[in-house]
Design brief:
The protein is an alpha+beta fold and 258 residues long. The protein has helices spanning 4-17, 41-50, 132-148, 174-187; strands at 32-33, 58-67, 70-78, 82-91, 98-107, 165-166, 192-203, 206-215, 218-229, 232-242. The chain has four helices and ten strands, in the order αβαββββαβαββββ. Strands 1-5-4-3-2 form a five-stranded mixed β-sheet, covered by helices on one side. The two termini are 27 Å apart. This is Nuclear transport factor 2 family protein.
Length: 258
Amino acid sequence: MTDRKTQVRALLKSIETGDAAPVAVIDPHRYTQHNLAIADGLAGFGAALAALPPGSARVNTVRVFQDGDYVFAHTDYDFFGPKIGFDIFRFDAASGRIVEHWDNLQPKPAQPNPSGRRMTDGPSQAADLAHTAANKALVRAFVDDILVNGRMERLASYFDGDRYLQHNPQIADGLSGLGAALKAMAAAGVTMRYDRIHAVLGEGNFVLVVSEGQFGGQPTSFYDLFRVEHGQIAEHWDVIEPIAPRAEWKHGNGKFDF
């Protein structure tokens, strides 16, 4: 039986190729959709693919990880325009088929960030598998302390000095780069607030946190991927997506509901 990470890679690639075989991994009777712009169920997924301009889709899945029944992927897309996305799939333990999907998508910038990094480059293979639980606890504590509760006096304790690689398209490497970006946002009157953590998934030294909050006054979904090294945060990728008004939702499942 093909492993789940390989199945997810094939399913995502089928968006580009049109190959129907990988779609069989989805349970047609139990597929809950959390992308608010796509209708629920397998029919909704099919309708979204049918709406793509022929031959326009491109899919390059850069990294895939698994945490129990969840598989999460980081992908460079051309999907109604260039985008970077995180996808999360939940497999049913008994049937081995996908029964639920979440994602977050952000337009892909043309230029690298101030440190020359792009949104998907960097390491892609999980290591330190024996420390998955400890790494998840560390990253959850960081997001809760710093991003949700603003305990900035604890910030430096999560990092090895200024050795911190950043893939956010607007922020330079290091704590100094993060501080400069936050200062610039404050000067421009742009606010960013994390209100709630919805999920923490990890494999080895990679941990993905799904959070909800506000950015520039707009309800927002934050997907943050961290790489941990020697018990400290060493690298960060993210995708930030505004949450559409409820009147525009194609289903009632919500954006989160883990």
